[in-house]
UniProtKB/TrEMBL annotation:
InterPro entries: Phasin. Residues 1-22 are annotated as: Disordered. Pfam families: Phasin_2. Residues 1-11 have a biased composition (Basic and acidic residues). This is Phasin family protein. Residues 20-108 form the Phasin domain.
């Protein structure tokens, strides 16, 4: 018997009941777990971004309200300055969170820590 024939005899056919189990035993079972972790992580990241956007919109509305009720230019400058400073801090913090979540996903191959 040739080596080609012996390989064909050992390979499971696509329709055989043990083919899927053989693939899982060959390592595809862990791929399914990684896929689930990947989807879960993407969902976590999407929720994080949606929460951040909601917080930023609240901050925008609050600032607009303060500007509409300010009495002089100095107060308006303080409001605008605080708004910019707060926005920069929040964007920086959010970027850090998303980078950490991404690194956890790519470096460990698992869902990021949700703490």
């Amino acid at each position: 018997m040739t080596s080609k024939q012996s390989r064909e005899d050992k390979a499971p056919s696509a329709g055989s009941p043990g083919a899927f189990a053989d693939l899982q035993n060959a390592g595809f079972g862990t791929m399914m777990g990684v896929h689930a972790a990947w989807l879960e992580s993407l969902g976590d990241m999407s929720a994080e971004v949606a929460g951040f956007i909601a917080d930023r919109i609240k901050e925008d509305v609050k600032t607009q309200h303060e500007i509409l009720h300010c009495r002089d230019m100095e107060e308006m400058q303080r409001i605008q300055s605080r708004f910019i400073e707060t926005a920069l801090e929040q964007y920086q913090a959010e970027t850090g969170k998303l980078v950490e979540m991404s690194l956890a996903l790519f470096t460990k191959g698992q869902a990021p820590d949700r703490s």
